[in-house]
Amino acid sequence: MSGKLARSLLKEFEKYTSEVHFKKITGVSGRVLKLDGNENLFLNYKFINRIIRDSLSEIEANLYTDTLCQDLREALARHFHLPAEYVMVGNGADGVIDAIVKTFLEPGVSAVVVEPTYSIYKFFIKIMGAIYKPVLLEDNFSLVPEKIINACDEATKLIFMCSPNNPTGNQFQYEQVVSLLENSNNILVLDEAYAEFGNYSLIPALRKYSNLIILKTMSKAYGLASLRAGYCLANPEIIEELLKVSPPYPVNIVAQKIIPKILTQVNLILNAVNKIRKQRSRMFKQLNDINGVEAYPSDANFILFRIIDRKLTGNKVHESLLKKGVVVRNRGSLPKLENCLRVTVCPALEGEIFIEALKECMSDEL
C-alpha cells in the first residue's frame, strides 16, 4: 500500500547504505581492519574523549537548543575570521547538501557534477526530480574547466565539485577553480571536506565570489565522524535562502558543545594532519611497489589504487581482502574507475597489515 502512495520517481531509487557492514566480517586473526570510511585514524583520542566528557557535563538533555545553532555558527565563523552570517550548519555535510538542492533545484532545472565523485550529490539531485548532468574528468583525473562551462545551459543552477576529490584524491588547480567562478553565472558548490590534507582552500576568497558555496565537515580532519556535523560557508544572501529549508535544531547538542572546544585545538589537528601526509607518501610508495597495482597521487587522507594485472579484477581483490578482515572501498562501478579500490591512510602498524594482506591477495589469485 505505502509503495503505491510514494512518489513515482522513487521507483528507481534504493536506500543509501554503506557498502560493507564491517561487524559481519571476521578476519583470519579475528580482527577487522576498517579502512573504507576516510576517517581520521591519527588523532589523540584520549585527549578528544576528555573534551567529550567535559562537554557532556554542560548538557541539559531535556531542553531544546536554539533552532539555528547560533553558538556553533559563531564559533565556526570566528575560526575562519568571518561573520556568522556566512555560516550554516547541518546534520553532516550531507544535511547541508540536502538543503542546497532543496533551495535551488526542482524539475526542469539541472545541476552539473564533476565525475567520478562523491555519489551523494547525484542522490539528492535526483530526489528533487532535477536534471543530473555529469562531466567526466580526464583519464588522469585532471579538470578541464571549459568542459564544465560548456555543459551549463539556461536550466543549470548548480555546479558540484569536490576538491580534493573523493574518490580520486587529487586537488584541482586553484586557478582552474577560480576560472569556473569567474566565467560562470551558476553557483559553484565546492566540497572541501578534505582540504585540510591538500594544498589550499578557497575560504580566503569567499568574500570575493558571491556564487561560491564551500562545504565543510567535522568528520575528516577533525575526527568527529559519528557526531554528524557539517557546515557550509557562503555569501549571506545564499545562507539566508538555505536557512529557509533547513530543519530546526539541525545539529545535536553534543556536537554543538564539543566542536567549539575542538576548534581551539589547532596544534592537535595539525599534528594529526602532518602525520597523515607523511604516512600517505609511504603508503603510496608501498602500493606502487606491488606488482599489478597502480596507486594514484593523493591530496586527501585516502589513496585510490587500481588493479592492473589482467588476471585479476578489483572485485576479486576486494573480496579477498574482506576474507582477511581488511575492509577497503570498492569504487569500480564509478566512471573511469574500473578495478579501482580506495583505502584510508592509516598508522604504520595497520598500514603494514593492509599492505601484506594486499600482497597475499595479489599472489593468491595469480
TrEMBL record:
One of its GO terms (biological process) is L-histidine biosynthetic process. GO terms for molecular function: histidinol-phosphate transaminase activity; pyridoxal phosphate binding. Gene3D superfamilies: Aspartate Aminotransferase, domain 1, Type I PLP-dependent aspartate aminotransferase-like (Major domain). The modification N6-(pyridoxal phosphate)lysine is found at K220. Residues 32-350 form the Aminotransferase class I/classII large domain. Transmembrane segments: none annotated. Pathway: Amino-acid biosynthesis; L-histidine biosynthesis; L-histidine from 5-phospho-alpha-D-ribose 1-diphosphate: step 7/9. InterPro entries: Aminotrans_II_pyridoxalP_BS, Aminotransferase_I/II_large, HisP_aminotrans, HistidinolP_aminotransfase, PyrdxlP-dep_Trfase, PyrdxlP-dep_Trfase_major, PyrdxlP-dep_Trfase_small. Its cofactor is pyridoxal 5'-phosphate. PROSITE patterns: AA_TRANSFER_CLASS_2 (PS00599). Its EC number is 2.6.1.9. It is an enzyme of class 2 (transferase). Pfam families: Aminotran_1_2. PANTHER family: HISTIDINOL-PHOSPHATE AMINOTRANSFERASE, HISTIDINOL-PHOSPHATE AMINOTRANSFERASE 2. Belongs to the class-II pyridoxal-phosphate-dependent aminotransferase family. Histidinol-phosphate aminotransferase subfamily. This is Histidinol-phosphate aminotransferase. The lineage of its organism: Archaea, Promethearchaeati, Candidatus Odinarchaeota, Candidatus Odinarchaeia, Candidatus Odinarchaeales.
